[in-house]
Amino acid sequence: MRVILQRTTRSSVLINGSEKRSCQAGLLILLGIEHADTEEDIEWLCPKIVKLRIFPDESGVMNKNIMEMEGEILLISQFTLHANTKKGNRPSYINAARPEQAIPLYEKFISSLEKELGKKLLPVFLVPICK
Fold it and tell me: How far apart are CA 29 and CA 15, in angstroms?
């Protein structure tokens, strides 16, 4: 499982020029699920994300977590985080989980984060189009 966390003052997802989701100050999370990932990974990662002290306190010291600053989270599935670019010029996504495995784990990730936060998330699931 790969996660990119970005502190934001505002974030949004546009699809075909139309805003699908947005959130105010908090975290933008890109989540890549690999075929070897399990629910145990989620059980470790979600509490870790929620407890990370990466937001400034009144003194400007990074001392607050997402709950203490009452921030929002925009969660985006991102299978491309598992791209392998070692050979050639075309990325390989062989390590990324297929949708039939990734979707249930993504949904579990959402419910686990919501449980840790005590509030709803703003998830976006982008299903890869394979031809």
Answer: 17
Active-site choice (9, 24, 78, 101): 78
> What distance in Å separates the CA atoms of residue 119 and residue 66, rounded to the nearest whole number?
12
Q: Going by DSSP bridges, is the β-strand pair 11-15/55-56 parallel, antiparallel, or unpaired?
A: unpaired
Strand-pair category, 62-64 with 55-56: antiparallel
pLDDT in tens, 70-128: 999 999 888 889 888 999 999 999 899 998 999 999 999 999 999 999 988 767 765 44
2-124 — its CATH code? 3.50.80.10
- The CA distance from 47 to 37, in Å, is 17
Which residue shows structure tokens 């709950």?
Answer: 67
Q: Has 78 been annotated as catalytic? A: yes
Among this protein's residues, is 24 annotated catalytic?
Answer: no
How many CA atoms lie less than 13 Å away from 107 in the CB half-sphere? 5
Catalytic residue among 6, 8, 24, 80: 80
